[in-house]
Amino acid sequence: MIKILLDNFNPENRPFVWLTSAFVLAFIIAYQTFPTILYVAKEKHLMDEPDGRSMHSDRTPTLGGIGIFFSLVVVMTIVGAMLNTKVLMLVMGGLTILFFLGLKDDLTVLSARKKFIGQLFAALLLIVFTDTRIMGFSKILDVDVLPYWVSIGFTLFVYILIINAYNLIDGVDGLAGSVALLISVVFSVLFYNSGALSLATIAVALIGALSAFLRYNFSNRKKIFMGDTGSMIVGFLLAFFSISFISQSQINPESLYHKASPALVLAMLFYPLMDTCRIFFIRIFILKKSPFEADRNHVHHRFILYGFSHLQTTLTVVSINLLIIVIAFNMLHLNLNTQIGLLLIYGAALFYAPFIVKRKLKKSKG
């Protein structure tokens, strides 16, 4: 009876039920995995020791990425036989590479060079074997279609940029997980509406895994961090979603987002990309040091300095990023160059606004 049911079941006929099941499965698996990870981490003393730039004072496990990875792999393995097996298997391959690199970095130390090479290899797997790449600039600065090898090189650059930009915002409780959750929700809706069920399934599975992770990440007694393992695999998936969305939109002239996809992706990833550009500028031109030398000059560190709690910082950043996304979706009728120009202006203004408000409140009280 089960064989007959499986032979006659088509996820495309019931996509909502299918995606709901993927979310529930991912959530349950991750939620049941984290207590075991916490127990092993504490028993084996696999804890993060607070240092001068840490935003926490207690020793905390940093192996949350294991639960996220395990949840994603189980969901993709179960659904693989009924969806686009090639894409799912290649995504799993890339995730596995980054999982072991991140795990080694969380447990011991891994050089930036080895992480960079691993990220390149994982990205190349998907770019070459699925031909999912950014075809051109969609007339940004009057540049349209890119030559094949330039397209591959630029797509690789975007992968590396997004993975590492996402890794850099993992500095406040709930921030990285909540930002990724918001972006994944938007992508899941876009993929669902476009009929890309395989991509929507991966996005929904990530939503389930992140929802379970945030329950522990916000906890006081059972706190766990994402670690490099989690930030690399989540950043990799966000990059994959971004490039897949842009690629699908560019090759489909009938798509509502045919010319607007780069601006929408920039809006969704505005916070990690803005914070990365800002922190690199400060380190290189103001502090005159290596851009890769860690410090506490990130935007989320500024929020904490201004008196915001971890939860307030996370809610403020996510709310502003959501507002930026909503505005971007309401500017689809504009020229792409105009969309991006306005996005940079109102995005920066919205993130600067809380500091102005906080400063005025302090003055009024003083």
UniProtKB/TrEMBL annotation:
Its cofactor is Mg(2+). The keyword Transmembrane applies. The chain crosses the membrane at residues 16-41, 62-81, 87-104, 116-136, 148-168, 175-192, 198-218, 230-251, 263-282, 303-328, 340-357. GO terms for molecular function: metal ion binding; phosphotransferase activity, for other substituted phosphate groups. CDD domains: GT_WecA_like (cd06853). It is found in: Cell membrane. Keywords: Cell membrane, Magnesium, Membrane, Metal-binding, Transferase, Transmembrane, Transmembrane helix. InterPro entries: Glycosyl_transferase_4, PNAcMuramoyl-5peptid_Trfase_CS. GO terms for cellular component: plasma membrane. This is UDP-N-acetylmuramyl pentapeptide phosphotransferase/UDP-N-acetylglucosamine-1-phosphate transferase. The lineage of its organism: Bacteria, Pseudomonadati, Bacteroidota, Flavobacteriia, Flavobacteriales.
